[in-house]
Amino acid sequence: MNFRSDNESPAATEIMAAIARANEGFVHSYGADPITARLDELFGDLFETEVTVLPVISGTAANALSLSLICPPYGMVFCHQHAHVNNDECSAPEFFTGGAKLRPLQGPGAKFTANALREAIEMTGAHGDHEPLPAAVSVTQSTELGAVYRPEEIAAITEVARAAGMATHMDGARFGNAIATLGCAPADVTWRAGIDVLSFGATKNGALAAEAVVLFRPQAEAGRRRSRAGHLLSKMRFLSAQLEAYIADGLWLRLAAAANRQAARLADGLEGVPGATVQRPVEANEVFAILPPAVIDGLEGRGIHLHRWPGVANQVRLVCAYCTRDEDVDAVISAARDAAQT
Amino acid sequence: MNFRSDNESPAATEIMAAIARANEGFVHSYGADPITARLDELFGDLFETEVTVLPVISGTAANALSLSLICPPYGMVFCHQHAHVNNDECSAPEFFTGGAKLRPLQGPGAKFTANALREAIEMTGAHGDHEPLPAAVSVTQSTELGAVYRPEEIAAITEVARAAGMATHMDGARFGNAIATLGCAPADVTWRAGIDVLSFGATKNGALAAEAVVLFRPQAEAGRRRSRAGHLLSKMRFLSAQLEAYIADGLWLRLAAAANRQAARLADGLEGVPGATVQRPVEANEVFAILPPAVIDGLEGRGIHLHRWPGVANQVRLVCAYCTRDEDVDAVISAARDAAQT
Amino acid sequence: MNFRSDNESPAATEIMAAIARANEGFVHSYGADPITARLDELFGDLFETEVTVLPVISGTAANALSLSLICPPYGMVFCHQHAHVNNDECSAPEFFTGGAKLRPLQGPGAKFTANALREAIEMTGAHGDHEPLPAAVSVTQSTELGAVYRPEEIAAITEVARAAGMATHMDGARFGNAIATLGCAPADVTWRAGIDVLSFGATKNGALAAEAVVLFRPQAEAGRRRSRAGHLLSKMRFLSAQLEAYIADGLWLRLAAAANRQAARLADGLEGVPGATVQRPVEANEVFAILPPAVIDGLEGRGIHLHRWPGVANQVRLVCAYCTRDEDVDAVISAARDAAQT
Amino acid sequence: MNFRSDNESPAATEIMAAIARANEGFVHSYGADPITARLDELFGDLFETEVTVLPVISGTAANALSLSLICPPYGMVFCHQHAHVNNDECSAPEFFTGGAKLRPLQGPGAKFTANALREAIEMTGAHGDHEPLPAAVSVTQSTELGAVYRPEEIAAITEVARAAGMATHMDGARFGNAIATLGCAPADVTWRAGIDVLSFGATKNGALAAEAVVLFRPQAEAGRRRSRAGHLLSKMRFLSAQLEAYIADGLWLRLAAAANRQAARLADGLEGVPGATVQRPVEANEVFAILPPAVIDGLEGRGIHLHRWPGVANQVRLVCAYCTRDEDVDAVISAARDAAQT
């Protein structure tokens, strides 16, 4: 049983079927195929506004490409200290932007506030040309610690950013999980809340390998930047087909809601385990908990994969995927109880 | 009917089946899955030597990543003027290397000789620190104009490179087509001929999106370079499965041979068309020809997709794919004859 | 006696005096000093328009910084094959732009024409996102082979550039020598002829180490780009003082005219040497000539430093500096005659 | 009177004289002159070991070039949060390295300990290819807050670095001030303590614009990296002459000692000012103090330039230069007392 990462889950049946359907004869390459041609409109419908969509195959590619569009080489990107762009992309943002500086912010649940951003911005400016230009802000939705920003929180952050002349990016590697929790329109927490560019993730939530850079404002030569990063697929149809199926008929939200539901069940169950502390809020599909060492060992001993979180003693992360079943969660809770009693 | 590019072909049945088979339950992500774990050995068997394999999803990624491993930012890469790395990757090599300089060489069929390389190297060195360091050579096999290097030609080139302290890369986007023509062992035209790094292509020849960077010599931190370029797939199994199926049981060579055979048939047929000149050698799966404008228009009017080659009047490229059928080629020849007579 | 390069000449008395005068007590650093404060206006007067001036200490810095302002990482810079930016800066333009592509053009005297540029531009565009964006043009004035563009030649080039949406740069490492020859206003061959950014050189013509990036159109964050390249001097006054003295009272033109005059004398004299061919035009301070090997050896044997030009048999370059004297030139001519007769 | 920065001081008489002496006739350019030729040996004598010296014109250039030699694009540089490389160089290290990540450490006086470094290193490694490779450590001597590392502190830091396979850099923009305080051999706190590369500063301490990158271990192609950054001066003799004069006869230490002495006097005097708190240790030429607002205003009102330190209320920095006089310091103390009593 695997709760280590939603990245370890298989691709959803609907996605696999869409890939198979796309495999019909010859079509033009590099995005000149009919499926790709539909994406701007389909995502435009989803987001209730005109958008440009650039499909890519990884979240790191989506984030780094997005940031390179809104932050110059001499710029500074504000993000949370625990942001994926700051910690888990081997300096891809620095690479794609040509050397921009990431400026980490603090805050519980890997969320930062508009005030924290404002204070950080106010600390810049005294050094003139000796310091990078505050240029961009990146928020993660849902966050790397499983929390979710409310639309008004995003709006407050982007208002501070806009006032300082900065552009805004949302890392939505788990965007579906956030929307499933919020119950709002995707627009409400993105462009209506002031977001300029969104990394819209699908891979963790059922796709094979598909993410979309969604531009709510036109950005110069995004296509050339994608191309020179090696991210313009020749057989683009297979990538676009995943994205099309993912947003068709609300599949993405159904899958995300399923994962969230299991995470909530898991959190509830773990709270009843002696010695366990679930680190609320569990607002998406990730559960962070402090567990007694014996429980951690016991779970792993029973073949349950989890993520021993680096840097915090006895902290683990358990992630529920779109395909995590009731019995899987039940089994974890039961195993944790057993281990706690031994 | 599509002869415009092998990139426009569908994925082969065997590849699709392998992807479907890989979609079983949870496995570890980012290359820690069992399929990826087998690749080094499988490719080692294929190449009769120890290798390290890094799967990526595009030829540009494979080439740019490869060059970044063997050429420093202050280095110079020698390649043919018509090389894909020089013309068709929107400066991806410059991006990945951090600003290296590509030094184009001349030669018919997009091939250059060891002598041409030697002369170009001899023209460097007079400017000291004012000029980039000759660091790497890149050859394309088969070339962008459909020609194939013989093992001894590659060996002569790499000997000149080695003598000048340079490392060597082969862009094998159509490597299968070259080997199908040469009939030699893959080793003979790569590491045994002095190649250090190979971009081993599969996408044009039946894969969905899969290329392998094959390292014949260890290169420091290739994995981190792949990661920061956004090319480390979370669900790597789907990429590795394509590569595994592609080289299993000689599928790659069967598919390439089929494409080559149709290209030879097509070339033969077009030579009989009044006013047509096939630009030999047709050694792989690409046919370059000068056709009367009426023939070009006639083919397109009959729904046959081809590539009007930029820069040369009345020159077209017709590419045969692994799945191009006898009747497709026959139809082109027949249509060309018709159009020539009108 | 040294005719190898004007870079080997000492600093002019007037420049040394200006540096000494600037060394009075404490002044604000990083360009907040009174001398630097005057530069925009002084250069504005010289160029008869509003300009922004960024002093730097090398021609490579001036060129690479300039190009980074007008060419994005995914852009293409058109320049002559023999351009300093293409050949003698160890890929500094690629480094500063973040990987832009230099596209070399041909033409005698290291000059290219508006037509050559137009044809090169027309060869782009067929590859879509696969090729870099034509973004900038760089011309050298006077050229690396000692020729000078007429204002109307520059205007024709920049018109082609502008029509293609490109910005324009002039490498004026020997700008003074060009103006001394043309006798026109500096404006006539720069912004009035459509140039956006000028590398205004002083080092080769009497300064200790001083070049100015002169912006005829505002460019975003040029200061931050200079800073992160390590080219923002703390004691900027010493750099600005050189530039101020250099353009005050026409010093720069007097020095350049003196150098040009000696080059003309040298060319005339060498033409009378048996077996020698001076490669006209000698329009600035550089003389290129094919000399009999015995003459080259003879000159060097008599302690006369010259530059054996790489790549062309028996070709030498002799450069006259602002401080080259009549007797120096006479001595070269006399030595060449002697050597030719032995 | 200026206590704002040693960067605002004039050049020392001895340095100006050396520049004037260097201005004799023609010499070879780009470092092929006799003065530059002597530098390796002169610095070798000073440091009691074989070294390679690359003169550059700014501290940012020295630091960024140094880091690019020892940290790859996918690497991580550990440094203090207040390090100049982290805060005051507009991402020059990121630019020169091609996107490396700076990892800030904490510690009083802008010093960090070997333990702090060890703990930070231990926090890496859990993310595999997703995080940059710990590659380099940079310490500043004396620090940005005026403190000085003891040789054994440096040795402990470099021992931790070495054990983790990392290389080490010292930012010695105020290296003379540190050595004047320590009284040890320059070797003791650099290569004997495990430092690989030193930015040896002269500009703040009497030079016009001169810093030396001193390599204690050979580094590949440092010259080409300098060249492509635009930092290879054509008239290098003027830069090398400053460095030669600076280290000849102990000038650098005499100048630094004079500055340190005045800083000590200034600190003593300010401690007697009501409401003032000097932030010890004052180990070099910088005094950090918390002063009553009225005192800060009073000093500025009396024409005394100081640096209101950003980020800390009522904190100022006063820097003594090599040429700060007894009466200047006395005047500050007296003015502060006056202002405190009003």
List keywords for this structure.
homotetramer; 342 residues; alpha/beta; 7-stranded mixed sheet; 4-stranded antiparallel sheet; globular
Largest sheet of chain A: 7 strands, mixed
How confident overall, as mean pLDDT of chain A?
97
Share of residues in helices of chain A: 40-55%
Radius of gyration of chain A from the CA trace?
Answer: 20 Å
Distance from N terminus to C terminus of chain A (CA atoms, Å) equals 21 Å
The two chains with the largest interface, and their residue counts, are:
C-D, 53 and 54 residues
Write down the secondary-structure element order of chain A: HHEHEHHEHEHEHEEHHHEEHEEH
What ranges of chain A have pLDDT less than 50 throughout 5 or more consecutive residues?
none
The assigned structural class of chain A equals: alpha/beta
Overall geometry of chain A comes to globular
Number of helices of chain A: 13
Q: Count the E strands of chain A.
A: 11
Q: What assembly state would you assign to the polypeptide chains in this entry?
A: homotetramer
Across the major sheet of chain A, the strand order is 1-7-6-5-4-2-3
Proportion of β residues of chain A? 15-25%
